Amino acid sequence: xxxxxxxxxxxxxxxxxxxxxxxxxxxxxxxxxxxxxxxxxxxxxxxxxxxxxxxxxxxxxxxxxxxxxxxxxxxxxxxxxxxxxxxxxxxxxxxxxxxxxxxxxxxxxxxxxxxxxxxxxxxxxxxxxxxxxxxxxxxxxxxxxxxxxxxxxxxxxxxxxxxxxxxxxxxxxxxxxxxxxxxxxxxxxxxxxxxxxxxxxxxxxxxxxxxxxxxxxxxxxxxxxxxxxxxxxxxxxxxxxxxxxxxxxxxxxxxxxxxxxxxxxxxxxxxxxxxxxxxxxxxxxxxxxxxxxxxxxxxxxxxxxxxxxxxxxxxxxxxxxxxxxxxxxxxxxxxxxxxxxxxxxxxxxxxxxxxxxxxxxxx
Length: 363
Prior knowledge:
The protein is an alpha/beta fold. Helix content is about 45%, strand content about 10%. It has one domain: 3-Layer(aba) Sandwich (Rossmann fold), CATH 3.40.50.10210.
């Protein structure tokens, strides 16, 4: 499968898209939010007794612009890329696993494949820059390069590669919208990407490597310490990345992280809620919100990853995740696990009787 990667986004429908990520996001519907909140207050329960489930329903009402929101078709897009930083000895798995997992995704054997199947979700896998010698059957081929450069010595990617990856996120969202999807889940695959995600987070939050580096695929304490040192050296090298989301993605990011950032921005511009997964995707969400602050209104956060740095990324976004399952797999798996909560929140909101309808005396 070939992605629409040949031509950069310059104009679409007559609109200059050179800096499309800066275009305004869709406003939330505050009237629908207020009506949804009023409905919650009339349902046969003590006010607030369904906790976060009430909050989800009200938030989705504002996003969808209707008092009775629904999640009917979910798009799960897994972006994949390889990382030159692997050469610094920051991972426990061989780099070949990235390509092997792409084949596993489309064959249906990966965790996200099983979850998508059980949830009836649309699953798409996009190669934005692995070391694969040739396209993999069933995978959208949109490679910006054969893996990023080693950002311990040089920027991870050039400006053209960054623009391409951001665009691939935009294109993935357009495909999801065309397929009638009303919720987006972004996943990722790329050996070494927890190092890139930590470096992006450090650059944007002003943190040290030790504050965000974690075991990733299974490093021991010495490995985590080395990983943090590599990140700190890179942050000294790439001073332009400090506080600048585009530069952070270009200098120390990953192709799949940039694509995720583009996808989150595209979701907010189109008015489609996005359910953010774990550590890697949250670093992309942080970059997206720095590039276009309005994006934050369109993000829901699925779970608290067992990767220790995730809590700091969530704090940087003032985000409260829905689940605490000690997951740290990635792929979008934690977000997929949280999807039933969103559906249940909508079902309760729409299906419960009001005090008047049930003939129950209100407080």
